[in-house]
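Readers of this paper often ask what the protein records in our data store actually look like. Such a record has a labelled line for the sequence and another for the backbone structure tokens. Nothing more is needed to write down the fold, since each code stands for a local backbone conformation. The remainder of this section carries one protein's record, kept here as part of the documentation.
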Amino acid sequence: MNRPAAFTLAAALALLARAPGAAAPVEPAAQRAAREGMARLIAGEGVRDSAVLEAMRAVPRHEFVLAADRGRAYGDHPLPIGLGQTISQPYIVAFMTEAVGARRGIKVLEVGTGSGYQAAILSRIGCTVRTIEIFRELADQARGRLARLGFGDITVRHGDGHFGWPEAAPFDAILVTAAAGFVPPELVRELRPGGRMVIPVGSVYGVQTLILVEKDGSGEVRTRHLLPVRFVPMLSKPR
């Protein structure tokens, strides 16, 4: 799913960071230019929602990756964030956000907080976000990072995302950022009539498909395959 053109931009940023006399690893103007270039690449791949693209331009992805990877933060590829987990490539983040119909004022459940980047994108759009992370260390880090960066209307929970967040349900939208072996029934139950869920389904060793789940006004559910993807597995039992 990588987009080679984005590596050129990331490489240029890395060279800038190592330039003699550079006062900081990456200058703020370069960061802004990198986000703008990233958004142009995403738009070129077919993402059209203006609110999604604005959020991709605004949220500093370099704050959500490991320090050693900041020079690669705006390339269109996933990056490790520790504990065997990754931050998704920007195109996939934007695609899923658009597919789920994220918009100002809706309530969204995210399963798989990771470093908090997807939650930050949703918050920037104006969503109220509940996000669940299976690793306590990542949940704590994301909670602190999101607070430090000033992202509001986000609540982070350490727990097993298969069971959702029943006391906060129903949700207008649900995003799952790890590959499940099946669509968890509890997440379908927690989706509001008229709501949407996007979830990757498949084996970590085999084919995974990003699936759109839609529940109509009467509560009837239908699914649609969107595109092939590769995600880390959706785990059980909080760690």
Notes: The two ends are 29 Å apart (CA to CA). Residues 28-44 form the longest helix (17 residues). The chain has two domains: 4-77, 85-229. Helices lie at 4-18, 28-44, 50-58, 90-99, 117-125, 136-148, 185-189.
